[in-house]
Amino acid sequence: MGYKLSRTVYKVRFEGTEYDGLEMSMGTLSVKEILEVEELMSGDDSKPTFVALVARLARAIQDWNLEDEDGNPIPVTEDALMGFEVKLINTVVSAWVNAIVGVPAPLENDSTSGGKSLEESIGMAQS
């Protein structure tokens, strides 16, 4: 019996952007898939390239909080993505890739240096 890898799901938030409040749950990518997405992002602006990028993005999005003008949830589909502005698609793809390959945020700094050593606490530390 071997170890089974589980796929990571990323909660991508767009706080501090013009899409503040938008949240998406997105699946991870393998190294090969990241390279393919980055190639699509940096490639030409041709229709087939962009359509391939949107199709890949649609497969990755598991959930989002997008609603239409009447407050109805918008289903996560390739067709829905094709109806959005290019700027939103580029922002989502960039945030997604950064979530996967980015450096994690630093840990909270709740700890001090660990307190005084025994020598310091009894006045034996050298100056």
- Strand percentage lies at 5-15%
Give the helix level as a range of percent: 40-55%
Q: How many separate helices?
A: 5
Number of strands: 3
Described by strand count, sense and barrel closure, the largest sheet is: 3 strands, antiparallel
Low-confidence stretches: none
Which structural class best describes the helix and strand composition? alpha+beta
Radius of gyration: 22 Å
Backbone shape: globular
What's the order of the H and E elements?
EEHHEHHH
Mean pLDDT metric = 82
N-end to C-end Cα span: 58 Å
Strand order of the largest sheet: 1-2-3
How is this structure best described in words?
- By secondary structure, the protein is of the alpha+beta class.
- It has a domain of 75 residues.
- It has five helices and three strands.
- The model has no long low-confidence stretch (mean pLDDT 82).
Keywords, please?
3-stranded antiparallel β-sheet; 127 residues; alpha+beta; 5 helices
Summed up, what is this model?
The model has no long low-confidence stretch (mean pLDDT 82).
Describe the secondary-structure layout.
Elements: E1 9-13, E2 23-27, H1 31-42, H2 47-60, E3 61-64, H3 78-82, H4 86-101, H5 118-121
Antiparallel strand pairs: 1-2, 2-3
